[in-house]
User: Fold these one by one.
Assistant:
Number 1:
Amino acid sequence: MSKEVSLEDIVSLCKRRGFIYQGSEVYGGLAGTWDYGPLGVQLKRNVMNLWWKTFVDDREDMYGVDAAILMNQKVWQASGHTDTFTDPLVECNNCQSRFRADHLEGDTCPTCGQKDTFGEPRQFNMMFETHVGPTASEEARSYLRPETAQGIFTNFKHVVDSFYPDLPFGIAQQGKAFRNEISPRDFVFRSREFEQMEVEYFVHPDTWEQAFEQWRIDIKAFLNNLGLPEDKLHELEVPEDERAHYSKRTIDFEFDYPHKRDELLGLAYRTDFDLKNIEKASGKKMDYTVKGTNERFVPHVIEPSFGVERALMAVLVSAYQQDEVNGEQRSYLKLPHHLAPVRVAVSPLLKNKEELVKKAREVYDLLKKQFGNVMWDDNGNIGKRYRRQDEIGTPHCVVIDFDTLEDSTVTIRNRDTTEQERVAISELTDKLS
Ligand code: GAP
């Protein structure tokens, strides 16, 4: 029987096994930043590549872009971020700790434990400011982008002029975003540097509801493909007074994380807010002409916005399992095979037997060509190797033993059932596929 996974289980596994480390840890860390280790970067790429394949490569109506992170400050003035991208900040008058007012429960300071010591909340802008070039002047001011979306809107006209797409069509982008969160927390869930995967889907204003509904369906199918169980996923219709300044309708897709049910991604109807603002601020037309007609208008936008870290955390939480094997406790990641950072591990039964190692190397080379992310593992005894591979979610371990030398068969051991099967090397890649 599996117990409910805790945040500590995930954090500890991620650190121990080389998925995710605290950023700058050797110098005491930098709050809200995280570094991905060898397995974490592979898992993250697998999630991002699946998203790109699903929403860009496999579709005819999507175009990818990769815009600069630093953008002209006018982008953020026009989008409303310089004025309204704020969170309410309160300070404890006793210990000077700072908190996000809407995250506080009660009137006791979580740091010093004193009651009624909070000052008046004030609005704190979450954009990281910097200056481009050698002078720290007002004109040189820029920001690290707080969302990838604006890099899409500013390239809308370029894509239209280069590709003449029919409506509806979408532009997709993946990349880093930065927010100076007042209190980063819950592991990578709320970070100051994170990654987004966003689509701006341009539609005729009359068809936005239809497109919105289709995106709901497409998002659910993708989350299913990530291996997230349906009973842990929930849709929240965000009330008007809690929606972002640009949105006329938003559904938050929430997931039951160990810390609480919380937002995994958002689906928003951004109307023509952004393109109209760009028109006003730049003086350039952002309208679209329907081919073969005189019909011109500024398209409206449906925006599915995914956070990579939140998707990754949901994948880890969903995959984390505990059971008992031969009277011993085991924890393992039941990751979908297409997401596993290591697809297959290959081991010689004994690492000091030259003929076993030679044969195992041949099998390793064969599988590496086929699957790419194959691990050579000869550390410790075979039982320890299985435990380690289980813990990082490797679906199959292939072991080369003395029988292999006689009959060219190997053992495949299954992560989920722990069962072992004898297979001819000539059938191995088919079997694992
Ligand atoms: N372009 C729309 C937009 O950025 P958002 O709801 O502010 O909307 C979208 O962010 C997604 O980005 C969130 O649903 C979440 O997955 C992710 N995200 C936002 N802030 C984050 C943070 N501080 N740390 C990790 N992920 C974050």
Number 2:
Amino acid sequence: MINTSPSASIPLKGNFLGIETSCDETSIAVISGGKLTANLVSSQDFHADFGGVIPELSSRAHLQIIIPLLNDALKKSGLALKEFDAVCATAGPGLIGALLVGLTFAKGLSYSLKKLFIPVNHIEGHIYSGFLMEEKPEFPYLVLVVSGGHTLLLLVNSFEKIIKLGSTVDDAAGEAFDKAAKMLGLKYPGGPEIQKHAQNGNPERIKFPVADLKGEYDFSFSGLKTSLLRYLQKYFGSTKDSVHKNLNQHELADIAASFEHAVIKALMQKTEKAVKNYDVKSISLVGGVAANRKLRNAFQELSVKHNKKLVIPALEYCSDNGAMIAFRGAKLFELGKRFSLDYSPYPGLLPDHFS
Ligand code: KG4
Ligand code: ZN
């Protein structure tokens, strides 16, 4: 279990509980007295044995850990349940069974404690996760959301207005890393594995294609994935076993580095185009893939080149966490948004979510 060290100041009044169970991390966080006082994350590492997240096992694991995790978070923050102003939980997008565990738990708590219940959109949690840092984004800002399920380029005008500039038309960036890792015989989640092997590789060795789509700010990663498959079939055989047997560490490093390079190039091309065309104050990189070191460096260079403030959350706020859910929920509370206990979880992004 990961626990976040004392955090930056978060200018919010009140006490908020944040519950995240959208996929394979159970996380409970507390924001209290303008600080994040707990952010406990329990990762379901056992999915690695299956090469991906098994939804039913995920729901069961959330169920098992959620109450002990809550008790630990309360102990850590020194608050009693009755002291909270609202209970915030991820409502979607995510695995429906996993979402149901956290959302129903939050509803039960809020009903029994007579406290407000605030459903939070997971992607909005990521979008505003930069506010958990000491140096916060300034509106309007451009944010690239890169996770296992989503790749979105957004213009964030305020805590109430987000405009979608582009998104992936097929696989998400994280999904591309996960699928590539699987083809290379590496374990799940694939992003950190590809990053690790890419460290010693030559990113220029293989020229994987970078899609240029009609949609000005859209992304596509399925062609890249297919071209990796073709490359492996051509040089290392057509079965997983033959790839595994014939691929040495040196070649693996070059393939991983070249693949990582192509994903980052695709992400940066569209992001830079948006930085040029929109007059933003800050740029931000969020979501699980934002943990990628070379992508973080590319954003650093972009921010210097275009003289923009850069906010990339610390690693513990890039992967799924309750802190971002508590923050977004607390903001919705502050904005006067109120929700009924009838609110249902949703597996995908709502069609009208971003204008
Ligand atoms: O946001 P997240 O924790 O969960 C979702 O909401 O999807 O993102 C998980 C994704 C996975 O696809 C994982 O492979 C990727 O983030 N990821 C990375 C790195 N660390 C995690 N991708 C590239 N480089 C990394 N260092
Ligand atoms: Zn996420």
Number 3:
Amino acid sequence: MTDQYVVAGHPVEHSQSPFIHAEFARQTGQSLHYGRLLCPLDGFETTLREFARGSSAGPALGCNVTTPFKFEALRLCSTSSARAALAGAANTLRFDASGWYADNTDGAGLICDIEKGAGVALAGRRILLVGAGGAAAGVLGPLLASRPALLVVANRSLAKAQALVERHRGAAKAGPVLLRAAGLGDCGGAFDVIVNATATSLQGTAAPVDPAVLAPGALALDLMYGPLAAPFLAWARDHGAVGRDGLGMLVEQAAAAFHLWRGVRPETASVLAKLRRRLAGGAA
Ligand code: NAP
């Protein structure tokens, strides 16, 4: 019998999370199995509840949740962390005896990767967050807490950006951070940090905003990774920015989830290096 975890989403076959958590388990001496759970678009709750009942392989103790179920995942939980409640979305669930607990580690993962991985301090910066889906919802609160001077949330559907901004008014005030919503065509220019949290890279296209959003030498980070991030990284490079993919964030958010489940914090740099080699086609 081995403790069971999964990443639940649609699609999940591309997910690198099983590799990352296997590495964390080996490194920390934890005994667990982490797999993939493909959920039908209209059957997330049923599929997850079946997994949570456990099996002959062992008890199910938690899961990660990926697109498009992060909002629904929070609603299925009886308790949540403050950051998941603020986001209105969860990427990490822990199945406690008293009920399901929701957390959102995406934002902590992103901040760690930008500040430690890329070496860019966010305080006082101008930040453009592109997108207003589950990933953007998860990272907005932690981005505000890092106290930039300005944060613009730009989205194809303006109403979704506005709703996200309204939910974060209190957090912006606490900064204080100037926070506003915009459409993709009127988000302003000369940002120090651009985070693409849309699904455009998944669709094979580059950034959905004008290059004028980039200040010279800006950090342009796409949450996508692997070959699908290439058009965005080329766009950043071609317009004088420093491109970065979402692999560092992926490993850091996973480490925070692992800590929530197992009570130990794994080391991330060596796992990120292995993952980069694996995705480049080399041996892990
Ligand atoms: P989601 O909830 O489905 O949201 C999709 C977002 O993309 C929405 O803002 C949507 O705008 C926008 N969008 C879709 N197609 C577009 C287009 N053609 N032009 C402009 N905007 C478009 O997805 P999500 O969960 O937020 O995930 C977004 C991306 O982040 C995915 O690629 C996911 O793999 C990645 N991600 C990476 C990590 C990591 O650790 N690296 C973590 C989380 C997510 P509308 O609102 O107008 O539809």
Number 4:
Amino acid sequence: MKYYIVTYGCQMNVHESEKLASICEKMGYTLADKREDADLIVFNTCAIREGAEDRVFGNVGALKKLKKQKPSLIIAVCGCMTQKQTTANYIMNTFPFVDIVIGTFNLPNFEHYVNAVKTGRQLELLQEGDIDESVPYKRTSGDNAWVNIMQGCNNFCTYCIVPYVKGREKSRQEANILKEIREVLAEGKYKKITLLGQNVNSYGKDLVPAVPFAQLLRDICAIEGDFKLTFMTSHPKDLTDEVIDVIANEDKILKDIHLPAQSGNNRILKLMNRVYTREKYLGIINKIREKIPDARITSDFIVGFPTETEEEFQDTMSLVREVKFDSIFAFMYSPREGTVASKMEGQVPQEIKQRRVNELLALEKEIQKQEGKK
Ligand code: 5AD
Ligand code: SF4
């Protein structure tokens, strides 16, 4: 019996799929080279933008033929998309050949749902629970080991679906994280540890006693061994001077900082509920450059947020020009059902979003050429 996992979205999903893989192997499945050879196909989905969801619908739909040829094939759709009840129902109704539809919080029980398929189709969305420490990972990222340090997000940026599908911020106990990293390093094949969280800078605020993110970083660096440490994603509102100092001072920490700005305009930042201004963002960048001269700074931007004018978009362009990021990701705003921004008046037409994203990416290319960056 063979399994095949199709993963969409961010590194956290890639890492969650490593958990799915270990559950599949525990059940006796081995990895298939391609989906046609599999007896169990799992889609681990992403809900961040409409495009990601459309790709899932297309790829799930394409399995109809395969299921007809092999009726014993089990097809499961899980992850952020299916944590939304409306999308879960839609998938059950539109794709009658899908056997399992579960949400992000059901994932540790995946084995149960596969076994239960024998008694019929499964649709269940659990409410958020404690962080799962029970299921190991089948690591799949070469000499990099992903290590989750927290789940969820409390920020409710008005465009973002994540807080709705991943629940509130919960930090893992520091002792569990340190133990996992020690074990990973003891295997001898990992050279890099990448800490994952929606908002790593607020790690540990919910623990009793609280453990500041800077302390977690220092404690990890104190572990013996030849390894590099990095993390994602940072929110500018929580990136403290102390964390910048730790990055500057610890040789083990890579000088890569992904710091999504989202916009360079204060009115739009406020509407996005980002809780910082352009000036505050630039202040943090200056501090980083001062203390970590070789820092490699990258960012995310959203263009065409509801009511964004041409002038306001030009503020994003000027921020990118000013900071000269090492690289940026630029996204067209995609309304997500249930979020505040999706209900705002003044949605920006698609062709304007397209033009703005092209303009921003062209600027990035030009800067990289001038700066001699790759
Ligand atoms: N539309 C477009 N981009 C989005 N992002 C998050 N939500 C949306 C949305 N609704 C982007 C942000 C974030 C990155 C992971 O995805 O830039 O930093
Ligand atoms: Fe979404 Fe904002 Fe949380 Fe990031 S910080 S996951 S953009 S709500």
